[in-house]
Design a protein that fits this description.
The protein has 143 residues and is mainly alpha-helical. 62% of the residues lie in helices and 0% in strands. The protein contains six helices and no strands.
């Protein structure tokens, strides 16, 4: 996808509503055929950008169980007898004192220890600093 910044912004704005429609289709259990038809109706640029827009719409502070709490059926469309449970991403123990361990604590419903909280705060600060530098560079390029 080779679009200038303005075209990318317009595409993103347009795709927000496409993404909302797509989420509605999936959450209504539209089925593989309906999902395929929906995606086939999109242009190449739209189909390439849709996952990025959807990812931007996800609240990644929530655990997988929380994100998927709306799922009330199994892969065959049959009602679930019990709430959906997600296998945690962290099959091996991530050392405490890291941002990864902080995320593991949250996913497992554990209270993060101070070292993990500090590592996560430092990671957030680095991320915010990167974003600030990108914004400043973008403003400087536009000037």
């Amino acid at each position: 996808m080779n679009l200038d910044a303005e075209a990318r912004g317009q595409l993103a704005e347009q795709l927000i509503w496409t993404a909302i429609d797509f989420v509605g289709l999936v959450k209504r259990n539209g089925g593989a055929e309906a999902v395929g038809e929906f995606l086939d109706d999109l242009g190449d640029d739209e189909r390439d950008a849709l996952p990025v827009i959807l990812a931007a719409m996800v609240d990644d502070d929530r655990t997988p169980d929380e994100m998927l709490s709306w799922v009330t059926w199994d892969e065959h469309g049959c009602p679930l007898k019990q709430p959906r449970s997600v296998t945690p991403r962290y099959r091996t123990k991530v050392d405490c004192g890291t941002a990864g361990a902080y995320r593991r604590h949250l996913e497992l419903g554990e209270e993060p220890d101070p070292a993990c909280e500090q590592a996560a705060a430092a990671e957030r600060e680095r991320s915010q600093d990167r974003q600030r530098r990108r914004r400043e560079a973008c403003k400087a390029d536009a000037a």
